[in-house]
Amino acid sequence: MKQIIQKLGPGLLFAGAAIGVSHLVQSTRSGADFGFGLLWALLLIHLVKYPFFQYGPRYASATGESLLEGYQKLGKGVLGLYGVLTFLTMFTIQAAVTIVTAGIATSLFGDFISVKVWTIVILSLCFIILNIGRYQFLDVAIKIIVITLTLTTLTATGLAFYNSTNAIEIVQYIPEGSVEITFLIAFMGWMPAPLDVSVWHSLWTIEKQLASPEKTNTKTALLDFNIGYLGTVILGICFVALGALIMNPTGNSFSNSAGVFSVQLIDMYTQSLGSWAYIIIGVAAFTTMFSTTLTTLDASPRSMNKTIELLFKKTFKKGYLTWSLILISGTLCVYFFFLSNMGGLIKLATILSFLTAPFYALANYLLISSKHTPKEWQPSKFMHFISCLGLLFLIGFSVWYLTIL
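RE: above sequence
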């Protein structure tokens, strides 16, 4: 068992990055507002995105290079477009996850420090950790965090079902009107994560191979990914259930304020487990969001630095550091602008992620199906079929959404 856990890494990093805003915020809000009515959307988007996420570790472990090198082989225009899209979205993504983390910190540790100050503290702490420990720290810390979150969330969900006195309705609901449809797009945009996380996953896979004395084979890399991906599905369902069982019957909805939302979130858990669990759940929620903040602050600078190096065919010794500082500065600017509206910031970030998903899906599919991937690791007929359906869905849904704006 110990050997299996040691071999795991990038897949759990993926889970750590994914199980954040999409689960703690969007899934619980879905349950609170629609009950179990949007379970179809959660399961569908996991199925649609699965092949494109999987192609990240598949390509990296099969070729020994990240998706970014692969994008370059498809053409400099593909890699350049990736760089532009990442630069345009990375600040809102980082700000969205950081504001939730800061809100939970305020709720857990007291409001003697404002959300604004907590934001600066959290970003500074993540910056220090990443520039001292880098991948090795992430690999160890994320295993502890994901296991802790999984156990507490499964326990809370089980008790919520046990204590529920209301009839459970699994009737599915199709959103109507611009407000509900916008929420649906936002919900699916980051469920389980933005598709550019597939690039991060490929970079982490390469880092895992460099840090491990044993070369990770492709089968192990795919097993690692599947475990992490299955975890995001199960926990996504759990968070929907918690919102549906605890918040929905009260008729209350989650606040757009980071501080108020975090109190509501932790109270939702303690209503299920009891007041004794406040600190445990608070710490679990905080570490979950902290891990997301940490992984995103690592991945965006790592991917941007690699992109610039490939485009200009030059190595930048302090590129990772420079991009980290750029990301932190941009995040603080975006954060202070949206400070009073956490919901609006998250909605903007998640919709942007959904609208850019077709690009990542198409690029990943073309790369994994090309001559640049060893034939034995190219997709099966079934995966080709699922990929084509997924592409049609992502493109069609995005076009449809833009036409009704």
